[in-house]
Amino acid sequence: MNDKLQLSEEMSAGTARLRTDVLGSSPREHVLDDMSFLNYRLADVRIEPAVSLPEPDIVWQQDGETSIGYDGRRMTLTGPWPAGPLQKVIVALLALRMEAAGLHPFHASAVRYSGRTVLFLGGESNHGKSMGQIEACRRGALLVSTETTVIDEAGYAVVGSKQPFIAKRTTGTERADKEAPDRGVQKFFGTMPAWEVYPDPSPVDLVVVPAIDGNFDPAVAEMIPFERQFQTFYSVQNYFLLNEILAPGFAMPLIDTGELRKARAAFVARFCARPYYFARAATPQVLLDLVDKVL
């Protein structure tokens, strides 16, 4: 096995940093050739011009039999891993580093609507956060985020992804059960509306957990503390891939701990002090009518 260092690369998301070292017989210019998935999932991921971290968070030995392991701090990969699983590993570990820096990625979209920041939370069902965001923007809202909203300890939406959908799944992560990402837009809107971006950090004023289904009668209800925290914890846990298969026969190693979960639950409890509503609707248009009622 060739242990020659081919690449040492550092990525950042806000103040969080992640270093990857690539070993083996094959030279590489970058760990990933395409950063679009990372920006879709974590809002704003950048390759730093120089490595500053003293030790790697990920070590990838390209030669040898395929394997993956985690020792509580460092992920070690061996073998010819395709880009899809590599992306997922980087997202999970970078999300951990973000959390340690007080930045919490939420699986949620957000808009600046009627002078308030409204978060459409992708909770347990995850049916409506994108369509709700698009309909709000169609009504004149400014875009804060699409797939991911990064929220700080004070409850401010500080940055967010700007792509409404990921255009193509990378090799190794294809899914036959997922419809074309723009199919909902075609069904509900015909074409994608244009919108402007809200550029500044803002406190989240209202959280809406949407559920869109063509069979639903419209209903909106304020959520009790347990429901708020359950759905929010589900949303932030989404980034640690605890239930993910990276590749056939290889599960994502467990990167969470009891201590981290306790701290995460405490943050969720603080965040959930703001107004929360569950909104059920047949279409995004009806969903936003319900949001208008509670604003």
Chain-wise SSE layout:
Elements: E1 5-13, E2 16-23, H1 36-42, E3 46-47, E4 58-61, E5 67-70, E6 75-78, H2 83-100, E7 103-113, E8 116-121, H3 129-138, E9 142-145, E10 148-152, E11 156-160, H4 183-188, E12 202-203, E13 206-212, E14 219-222, H5 225-237, E15 245-247, E16 250-251, H6 258-271, E17 276-281, H7 284-294
Parallel strand pairs: 2-4, 4-6, 8-13, 13-17
Antiparallel strand pairs: 1-2, 1-3, 5-6, 7-8, 7-9, 7-10, 10-11, 11-12, 14-17, 15-16
Could you walk me through the main structural features you see in this protein, from its secondary elements to its overall organization?
This protein is α+β, with helices and mostly antiparallel strands and 295 residues long. It has 2 domains: 5-100, no CATH class; 104-294, Rossmann fold (3-Layer(aba) Sandwich), CATH 3.40.50. Helices cover 27% and strands 29% of the residues. The protein has 7 helices and 17 strands. The chain has helices spanning 36-42, 83-100, 129-138, 183-188, 225-237, 258-271, 284-294, and strands at 5-13, 16-23, 46-47, 58-61, 67-70, 75-78, 103-113, 116-121, 142-145, 148-152, 156-160, 202-203, 206-212, 219-222, 245-247, 250-251, 276-281. Strands 7, 8, 9, 10, 11, 12, 13, 14 and 17 form a 9-stranded mixed sheet that branches. The protein has a 6-stranded mixed sheet with strand order 3-1-2-4-6-5. A two-stranded antiparallel ribbon has the order 15-16. Strand 7 (103-113) and strand 8 form a beta hairpin. Helix 1 (36-42) runs parallel beside helix 2, helix 3 crosses helix 7 and helix 5 (225-237) packs across helix 6 (258-271). The longest helix is centred in the N-terminal third of the chain and has 18 residues, at 83-100. The protein is elongated and about 65 Å long.
